[in-house]
């Protein structure tokens, strides 16, 4: 499928794709300062981390989440659909891996067309 076809397919009727650009929040998840938990504790924190991702996705706040496949300092990304950076920070601190210090984060504004995965609101069932 070409980009032109994809753009036409996802475009709101009567609106150019470039007029649909919306700000999101890109979050780089990095290794935190406290990664000394035993394996059982780390597994429990990871379970809570995944549950939190699921909760935020179904609330329509988290559009993308996923890990990197190497052992570098960058561990994963989130892309949030929130009004402000402060709202993103409030949501991030609900993550058990961030609260425990296993993960740290860097938040940046990021823009894309509000189509496909980036359609505003809660996901369709």
Helix content: 25-40%
Strand arrangement, largest sheet?
2-3-1-4
Largest sheet: 4 strands, antiparallel
H/E topology pattern: HEHEEHHE
Briefly characterize the structure.
With 125 residues, the chain is α+β, with helices and mostly antiparallel strands. The chain has 4 helices and 4 strands, in the order αβαββααβ.
Explain what this protein looks like in three dimensions.
- The protein is of the alpha+beta class.
- The protein has one domain (24-112): Alpha-Beta Plaits (2-Layer Sandwich), CATH 3.30.70.
- The chain has four helices and four strands.
- The protein has helices spanning 3-10, 39-58, 85-92, 96-99, and strands spanning 21-31, 62-67, 74-80, 103-113.
- Strands 2-3-1-4 form a four-stranded antiparallel β-sheet.
- β2 (62-67) and β3 (74-80) form a beta hairpin.
- It starts with a helix and ends in a 12-residue tail after the last strand.
- 17% of the residues are buried.
- Residues 1-9 have low confidence and may be disordered.
């Amino acid at each position: 499928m070409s980009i032109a076809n994809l753009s036409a397919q996802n475009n709101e009727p009567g609106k150019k794709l470039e007029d649909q650009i919306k700000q999101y929040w890109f979050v780089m998840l990095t290794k935190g300062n406290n990664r000394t938990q035993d394996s059982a504790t780390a597994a429990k924190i990871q379970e809570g981390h995944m549950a939190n991702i699921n909760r935020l996705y179904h609330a329509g706040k988290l559009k993308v989440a996923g890990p990197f496949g190497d052992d570098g300092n960058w561990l994963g990304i989130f892309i949030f659909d929130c009004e402000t950076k402060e709202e993103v920070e409030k949501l991030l601190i609900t993550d058990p891996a961030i609260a425990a210090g296993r993960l740290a984060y860097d938040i940046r504004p990021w823009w894309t067309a509000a189509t496909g995965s980036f359609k505003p609101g809660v996901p369709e069932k």
